[in-house]
Design a protein that fits this description.
seven-stranded antiparallel sheet; 10 Kd Chaperonin, Protein Cpn10, Chain O; six-stranded antiparallel sheet; about 10% helix; mainly beta
Length: about 230
């Protein structure tokens, strides 16, 4: 199937995620009727690719590495962008194409983060997949409550307080650990960072994405500021 320049044509199993699976495989269902854009499907199957990208400067440097049959990871916007919403239940989707009773979606090249072929995930168009960096810090409000309890009880001592130090786990928005990085956009320099390394990033351009079984950060290579020293 042929599709217009600058777009892929894709299909999805369902428009919205209906739940997420835990590490143990348990599926937790969600109410995707409330704020449905938060559950837009971000995994799709490619059914058509353009012969060429065209000359639109918005797509300068982008490659068309995908083939029909590839699975892709894509932006939330592919499914949920709409041109009109007469009421809360019937949005008219911007990228939806109906053909012979089947749903197809046009996906701009810039909205493709990665494609998966033969079980291997390949990032495209300068996108980076990363994991958040977590930091632990002392929860001083809770610490004061624990300390008061210790002082009030003769059965506890300072050593026990030290082992019960309350902490808060926070995710940094300005750092990320690279999980998958591919080639840069054509014309941009290749970065000397590798998978597993931690980098400083411009947190204004970081997005959190979730699939049914995974959660990760997405940002462009040109938003990496520096490598964090080990």
């Amino acid at each position: 199937m042929k599709c217009p320049v600058k777009y892929l044509l894709v299909r999805v199993d369902q428009d919205l995620y209906d739940g997420y699976r835990t590490a143990g495989g348990l599926k937790i269902f969600v109410d995707n009727v409330f704020q449905p854009w938060e559950y837009s499907m971000t995994e799709a199957m490619v059914v058509g690719v353009p012969d060429k990208k065209g000359s639109d400067p918005a797509y300068a440097g982008m490659r068309i590495d995908m083939r029909p049959g590839d699975k892709i990871l894509m932006s939330y916007a592919v499914i949920y962008d709409y041109v009109d919403q007469p009421d809360n239940d019937t949005p008219r989707y911007k990228n939806l194409i109906m053909y012979e009773g089947k749903k197809y979606w046009k996906c701009a090249l810039g909205h493709v983060f990665a494609y998966i072929r033969d079980g291997v995930t390949r990032m495209v168009n300068g996108w980076v997949m990363a994991d958040p960096v977590e930091e632990r810090r002392t929860d001083y409000d809770s610490l004061r409550r624990v300390e008061s309890a210790v002082l009030a009880s003769s059965a506890r001592d300072a050593e026990e307080l030290a082992t019960a130090m309350p902490t808060i786990v926070e995710r940094r928005r300005d750092q990320a650990k690279i999980r998958n990085i591919g080639q840069p956009l054509l014309g941009e320099p290749a970065l000397s960072v590798s998978e597993g390394e931690t980098v400083w990033i411009d947190d204004r351009y970081v997005q959190t994405y979730k699939t049914e079984t995974d959660e990760f950060l997405i940002f462009r290579q040109n938003k990496i500021i520096a490598q964090v020293s080990s």
